[in-house]
Write a structure and sequence with these properties.
Pfam families: DNA_pol3_chi. One of its GO terms (molecular function) is DNA-directed DNA polymerase activity. This is DNA polymerase III subunit chi. Helices cover about 25% and strands about 25% of the residues. It has one domain (about 5-150): 3-Layer(aba) Sandwich (Rossmann fold). The chain contains three helices and eight strands; from the N terminus they run E-H-E-H-E-E-E-E-H-E-E. The chain is globular. By secondary structure, it is of the alpha/beta class.
Length: about 150
């Protein structure tokens, strides 16, 4: 069952946070699905990841291609077909029903400057913890990521 990590982004960019977390997941041997809500925004993220530093290159592809199942990191709007052990939700994307049960990690990245995104993350926190999932809330308000609270399964 997944550890659900909420990342309240206030200083970093979404692209940098995605690259860092996905890189760590790949280092653990996991495949990653990055789920968004807007194709144009995923195009933007795809471009940012391709333009990143060579030493930290993140091998990835966009959902809908012939090599989806082989992608270590897949960006898309759907459930993904790359057998991901970790799913990253950006821009208000939601977990699929029961999805967390088969994952190692579920990340929820949300923009701390967007009140709607903050409220949506609060609502998702309540539903995730009501399901009895292990959840942590991380904030970078001090300039570095710190865990602010944790709810362990009972």
């Amino acid at each position: 069952m997944a550890l659900v990590l909420f990342y309240h982004i206030t200083r970093s960019s979404v692209a940098d946070t995605v690259a860092t977390l996905a890189g760590r997941a790949l280092g653990a041997g996991w495949r990653v699905m990055i789920r968004g809500t807007d194709a144009a925004r995923l195009d933007w993220l795809d471009e940012k990841l391709w333009l990143g530093p060579e030493e930290g290159f993140l091998p990835h592809g966009r959902e809908g291609g012939p090599q989806d199942a082989d992608q270590p990191v897949l960006l898309g709007l759907g459930e993904g077909t790359n057998r991901a052990q970790a799913v990253m939700l950006i821009d208000g994307a939601q977990p699929l029903p029961g999805e967390a049960a088969g994952l190692e990690r579920l990340w929820v990245l949300f923009d701390g400057q967007d009140e709607g995104a903050v409220n949506a993350a609060r609502g998702l926190w309540k539903s995730i913890t009501a399901e009895g999932l292990h959840a942590q809330y991380w904030s970078e308000e001090t300039g570095r990521w710190q865990m602010k609270t944790e709810r362990k399964p009972e």
